[in-house]
């Protein structure tokens, strides 16, 4: 039994996202026809239906849309981590993603707070995009 948090399971659609994250870049799939960001990645653009897409680095800045604080670990690996924040983040570029709020003041976060991406190592090779409260 290990206390290490699990590494991400990487499906083909998301492989570019995880490759970039491992190098501490937040990259999101973007429609090559209309410029709409897609997160999570998918085969077709929800705005225009195009299957053309590329991956673009985004700012990593956003705001908390909603959040909850987890007090009971869902699996044994998370026991050492509770309490922790799970949040929905609205990225400046538009997509909404789920991540933890980590770092100083995380447990005092509020809806609307500005956040910026940070990366947390998982397993030997992977890093998971997380967010910390932005300094203002
Ligand atoms: Zn499109």
The radius of gyration is 16 Å
Give helix and strand order, one letter per element, not per position: HEEEEEEEE
* Residue fraction in strands: 35-45%
| CATH A-level architecture of the largest domain | Beta Barrel
Please give the order of strands in the largest beta sheet.
4-5-6-8-7
Bound compounds, please? zinc ion
Judging from the principal axes of the Cα atoms, what is the shape? Answer: globular
Question: How many domains, in number, for the residues?
Answer: 2
Cα-to-Cα separation, first versus last residue: 41 Å
Global mean pLDDT: 95
- The number of helical runs is 1
Give the class-level CATH name of the largest domain: Mainly Beta
Largest sheet, in brief, is: 5 strands, mixed, barrel
Instruction: Determine the CATH topology of the largest domain.
Output: OB fold (Dihydrolipoamide Acetyltransferase, E2P)
Classification by helices and strands? mainly beta
Q: What is the number of beta strands?
A: 8
What percent of residues adopt helix (DSSP H or I)?
Answer: under 10%
